[in-house]
Every structure is written in C-alpha cells, then in structure tokens.
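Write out structure tokens for Oxaloacetate decarboxylase.
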Amino acid sequence: LVSEIKKRFEVRLHLHCHATTGMAEMALLKAIEAGVDGVDTAISSMSATYGHPATEALVATLAGTEHDTGLDILKLESIAAYFREVRKKYHAFEGQLKGYDSRILVAQVPGGMLTNLESQLKQQNAADRLDQVLAEIPRVRKDLGFIPLVTPTSQIVGTQAVLNVLTGERYK
C-alpha cells in the first residue's frame, strides 16, 4: 500500500501503530522498506502494550542498512533508564495488558479504544469483564455492518459492547 500511494501521489506518509498485538514492529519494518517517510515509536520503557513499538528495537533492526537511523543506542538506553523510573510513579494508571494480546486480533480493537474500554469497566466496578466485552465487540460490529473502528465509531461500538455485557441484554 505504501509503495503504491508513493508512486501515485506526491505525499509524505507517516505510520502510526500500537503494539498490542505484536504486529506493529513488522508493519513498521515493511512500511520503511516500502518507502514510508516516518514512523511512530516510543522509548522502550514506555513502549509496547497500549503504546508504540520500542525505538531501540527499530534502531537496532535498521542499523547497517540503507535505512540506518544514525541514532546512538547507548544514548537511547540512558533515556529508557530515566523513563523506567518515571513510569513507576504512574503504576496505578497502568492498564491490564502486560504483553501482546491475541484477543485484540480477534476483536480488532485499536489501542486507544482498549484503554477507553478498561476505563469504562473500571468505573462500573467490572474490570474483570473485559474478556466478555472483547468477545462482544465483533458481534456489535457485525450488527452494524462491520463499520471501521476509528473515532467516533470505535467509541460507539465499544460503549454498546460494554452496555450489552453489563446489562446482560443486547441493545436494551
């Protein structure tokens, strides 16, 4: 897709991926190889789960190739060390994900939508019902003609899935 868009249009392309499923790193690499102009990453201590792929991993992957970033991995590590300490201060705000989550592949939930779902469930003292909500999302999407999960439709589908699960009835 990237190479075809670049062939047909004079535009700059930038890729934004969340790392919830483990596929973002591969998507970034393939997009870079196809000519994307920029990608989003996060320093390793703040990456993965709901966030972006780790900067250091991509820098190391591209080292010595035609796409070498020139970034110093040792300097990146000192930045990562700093943010490891910062992140500890905000532990109470961490979501449920602790690594890649294959449920997200099935439900096709974007990273921002996932944090919103967790917040809604937590407010209703129902954080333990996330699995049920993730299972309900594809059913709601099917009922709505498989609309894409981008704002605002992702919030509509997510909220409806939460309501369906919490009330025990669909669309009541």
